[in-house]
Structure formats: C-alpha cells, structure tokens
Amino acid sequence: MSPQKRQYTLADLSARFELDLHGSGEHVVDGVGTLMSAGPREVTFLANPAYRKELPGTKAGVVILGPADAPDCPTHCLVAADPYLAYARLATLFDPRPAPAPGIHATAVIADSARLGDQVSIGANAVIGDHCEIGDGCAIGPGSVIEPACTLGENCRLYANVSLGYGTRLGKRVMIHPGAVLGADGFGIAFAGDHWEKVPQLGAVVVGDDCEIGASTCIDRGAVGDTVLEEDVRIDNLCQIGHNVQIGAHTAIAGRSAIAGSTRIGRYCLLAGGAGLAGHIEIADRTTIAADSTLFRSVRESGITVSAQLPAQPIREWQRNLIRLRKLDQLAHRVQSLEKQQGKSSNDE
C-alpha cells in the first residue's frame, strides 16, 4: 500500500519558508515536478535562465522563482531570492521515503562491547564490531559493516552495504550512500628491488558534522595521521579520496573525481566532475576546479577558477589540432629563432 500523499496549501508553504506568495493561498499541492511536467497540484521552480522559455507554458500549481520572473508567471508563484535553495528546502516535505524505524533486525550481528544510543535502527545482516559507539537516532542499513572502534555521532544515516574501517569516526548527521567504503587501506607500497612491500596504513578516517558521501565512493584511511573531512563536505558518487587527504569545510566534490594522497583542499572549494588532483599539493579556499581538469601543482590564490581540459570538438578538427600539437615544441624553437633574427636586424638598422 503506497503512503498517502502529503498536502499543503500555498499559504502554509509561504509562511513556513518565508516566501512571498503571488496567487491564492488556498490552492493545494501534493508533489513536485519540472516546469514542463508539473501539474496543477505540483510545485516546480525556475532557477536556470536556460529554462525560462518553458515558464509561459507551465501547468504547475505553483512556481518558485526570482522577483524578475514573477510578472511573467502564468500561475501561482512563490518568490525567493534564491529559487533553487528555496526549492531544496521545500521539496523535503514531499519525500515519500519513510524514515527507518528504530529497532535491531534479527539477523544483525552486534558485538557485546558495542554501545548503541537511543532510537537506533540496525538493518538486516549489518555487522557492528567491538567497542563501537553508535549515537542516538542513527540508522545502519542492511549489509553494512562497521569494524571495531568506530564512532558515529547522533543521527547518522548509513544506507545499504556501507563499510567503515577500523577506527573511523563520524560526526553528527553524516549521510553515507550505498556501497561507500571509508577506512580501507590507502595505496601505500614500497619497492624492494624486485617486489613491492606494503606500507602499513596506521591512521583513520575522521568525518565532520553534516557531511554527505555518495554511493561507491572510497575514502582511504591515513598512512600516518588521519584522512580528514571537515564539516559540511559533500562528495558525489564514485569518487576516490587518498590517504591523509584533508578537505576543508563546505567543499563539494562531483562524481568521478580523484584526489591523491596528502593533498590539502581548502574551505568552500568546488570540484566539478572528473577532476583529478595529484598528491602533496594544496588548494586555496574557494577554488573552483572545472570538469575533467587535472592539477599537478598547488593553487595558492584564493577564489579563482582553474581549468586544464579541452572541450569536445569534431573529430577531424581534433585530429588536425593534434598533428600541430605534436609539433608545438619544434614550432616554439622556430619562433624563438625568428625573434632573435628580428632583434639582430633591428639593431643593424
């Protein structure tokens, strides 16, 4: 049986989220949709100017938008200084997924020395090791494994099949999506002439309050010292964070990004999808790294955008450019030679 939809009047939404209402406060909505797909009982939003052309034809019950777009809205609207942020807050009201019910599944395996807080939910086949501390209101999804000596602050949410390695420490309200692994060994190996030997990874992973870690992301434990995420770090799916990496508060990292060991990333940074950072470099606060960029050197100046990638282009054009790229060093020497000759001619005159 599907859960009953939650219903709200526009007057209620306007008051609850402190948004100016243009239209009838008695109109009722019970869901969300896009500008093109939303119906008369659904909420939508306009934040990206690229979609403004869809506003005149929308059939939505209410549109969240900025003050400049309100006069052209054909239906009820809620006016916000930041429409996307307002939508993010409002849309939580319509999430149909139920909260995990407190309780311990019969198939869960919990060490006698582990300490569980109040109102904790432990899913099927979850494993919690010795001397773990699970805070109040935490939810551990089915199949998740928490190795010994881990601590979780209150109201953490681990979805299915999450793994926390020995000694991992989570702050409050940390959310970890399915398949993520925190605290596996970092890639530490030493070459002994004819073979590799493992370097012990003796640190842990420490995650601050209000962080979110995407599905199948891996965050390695420190080799010496800890791998640290400060508060409110947001990491997308399929990312790799190497050992002893430090990530500053409020930084967001999009999918497929990879950060090599001992790199330090500042606060309020943005890494777009596929970004790659070499090890042992530093990234200043409020740096934005464009998609598919690879950085080998530190970024010292705060607040700049860096890019190190070529946009896609027709393949024949790319092939012609690649031929010239291979001759770039040769061409540079020729230019230098010509410049020297030109300088000599000028002196002679």
Question: What do you see in this structure?
Answer:
The chain has 349 residues and is an alpha/beta fold. Among the domains are: 8-94, MurE/MurF, N-terminal domain (Udp-n-acetylmuramoylalanyl-d-glutamate--2,6- Diaminopimelate Ligase, Chain: A, domain 1), CATH 3.40.1390.10; 318-348. 14% of the residues lie in helices and 26% in strands. It contains 4 helices and 39 strands. The strands form 6 sheets. The chain has an 11-stranded parallel β-sheet with strand order 8-11-14-17-20-25-28-31-34-37-39, with no helix packed on it. Strands 9-12-15-18-21-26-29-32-35-38 form a 10-stranded parallel β-sheet, with no helix packed on it. Strand 22 (189-191) and strand 23 (196-198) form a beta hairpin. The N and C termini lie far apart (93 Å). Residues 345-349 have low confidence and may be disordered.
Descriptors for this entry?
Udp-n-acetylmuramoylalanyl-d-glutamate--2,6- Diaminopimelate Ligase, Chain: A, domain 1; eleven-stranded parallel beta sheet; single chain; 349 residues; ten-stranded parallel beta sheet; alpha/beta; 39 strands
Global shape: flat
Provide the low-confidence segments as ranges.
345-349
**Straight-line distance between termini:** 93 Å
Structural class: alpha/beta
Which range does the strand content fall in? 25-35%
Radius of gyration, Cα only, in angstroms?
27 Å
Count of individual helical segments = 4
The top-level CATH class of the domain at 8-94 is: Alpha Beta
Strand line-up in the sheet with most strands: 8-11-14-17-20-25-28-31-34-37-39
Question: Tally of extended strands?
Answer: 39
CATH superfamily of the domain at 8-94: MurE/MurF, N-terminal domain
Mind telling me which CATH architecture of the domain at 8-94 this is? Answer: 3-Layer(aba) Sandwich
